[in-house]
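Instructor's aside before we start: the two examples that follow are unrelated to each other. I chose them only because their records fit on one page, so don't look for a connection. First example below.
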Amino acid sequence: MVDNNLFSQFISAIGQAKKIVFVGDINQLPSVEIGNVFEDIIKSKKITTVELKSTHRQANNSKIVELAYMIKDNNFDLKKLYENQTTENQSKTDLQTIFVDNQEQCLKEIINNYNLDNKTGFHEPYKIQIISPFKDDILGVKDINKFIQNNRFKQEKLDENTELCIQINNSEYYQKDKVMYLRNENDLSNGDIGVIQKIHKDSNELKINFNDKIFSTINNASLKNLTLCYACTVHKTQGSEFEKVILVLDPKRSSSFIDKKLIYTAITRARKQLVIIANKNSFINGINKNPETRDTTLVKHIKLMYKKRKKSHYSYIF
């Protein structure tokens, strides 16, 4: 989502545009920085708004869609969600919930569902994404990435001293590692996901295949903009979609950070399969928790602008 400062820069840069079309979802996480631009514009009721209600990302009978609507409409019912289903046939639907009580169980289920045994997670890295709300701690993004990488050593019997490894910012990267680029530069965008194809240790360069389309050589100056991406935060996945998503909610972490918008954003990244690994109570409490309201003055300013200038030169459609 766009924050106040970026939105202001955008409006200033486009000048006398005749029409601006914004696409978004107010049920997802707001911007990391200050503001609540998209929701405020709609709340002003001064700009033409169109709501799309048909779902095209998932199948018509999707349990992912059913869960998303339950969260959106504040009527979550776990029993109804799995009505007429058993634990055994739950895996035949596109939604599977695995409730755990400790971090060890959680890590075991991450490995089981990342399909390390048949290496699907490594051979088809763009199809599977682990998502965690947190960066740090045992079940945060950093440790999950290292955990998956270490298990890859066991699966493929990699030698940590091989020429297939390079060290960047005190982290090790190996050939075939899944990575994310964190800046907008060199024809790459912040959040682009790729796989390391070649490591040139003599020149300190990496050849990376981004989304099976762009082959980019990342030199020494840009290496700091890389991070492992077997797992990433919910915020980093906004705007992306994956065939399979594994959402991990640490059973030992406080649920104060987890709310309905965070869970809604995470689960709607999945197209064909969603696996939720969490403590049952933390998961349910998060779904039923409304996020803190962001109080801004944007609605007031939009209404004031329209009051002063009834015949605007602009037409807005959302």
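Example two begins here.
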Amino acid sequence: MIDHFEIKVAAFEECRAFYMNALEPLGIELKWSDENAAGFGLSSEPNVRFLIEKGVSNSTCHIAFSALDKRQVTAFHEGGLSSEVALLTP
């Protein structure tokens, strides 16, 4: 499953306030924040699962999937490469 993901936002302060309010009913809270980034996670666990970072809104995003071990990481990578999608590089 998805372990964590990060997006860039142009209006950082406004987005941090928005997500703090919008995610609270879902049991998601602000775990940490500084002037450039903020991390959110479930109230019931210490992990950060969703990050916002100050940047341009059309920047790339970062999505990380969980793996139990190196074998799964290798299989995931090989599976992606075998799809022959031009975006992926070894």
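The chain is about 30% helix and 30% strand.
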